[in-house]
Amino acid sequence: MDSVFRALIIYLVIVVLFRMMGKRTMAELSTIDLVLLLIISEATQQALLGDDFSVTTSILVVATLVLLDRAADILKFHSRGFSKVTEGTPLVLVQHGRLLMDRLRKEHIAVEDVLVAARSSQGLLKLEQIEYAILETSGTISIIPASERTALDREADHRDTDEGR
């Protein structure tokens, strides 16, 4: 029973730590992130099994983790609040062609990341062409393009503002 309790504690701690890492970290695994995951897996393996490396204990720990994951999926499906706590909510980064800098800073997202998402998913080259850029709970950035007319109006406004300086 000790192994089940340890599995529960480790599972909860890792979920909390990964939530604190931010959405983008989980979407784009860098070499450093991969190394971190490998080290975490090694450290948690020791904490999960303790001194008992038997097949029975390993099966018990794996079964516990799978059941915890399944229970979390069911809770997320039935409880919006639980889903919001564990997965977060989508966050608008660009609204009507304007960057929401406080949100970009909070999530550690560069303007270039938004523009890369716009180019790769919609073929858009300028911020004025983006109606909304949304940081999804998965860490990806969804782009909703502005209508052609709106994008042209925004570009003209931008040029007028630049010329007025």
UniProtKB/TrEMBL annotation:
Signal peptide: none annotated. Pfam families: DUF421. It is a multi-pass membrane protein. It is found in: Cell membrane. Keywords: Cell membrane, Membrane, Transmembrane, Transmembrane helix. The keyword Membrane applies. Residues 78-148 form the YetF C-terminal domain. The keyword Ligase does not apply. Belongs to the UPF0702 family. This is DUF421 domain-containing protein.
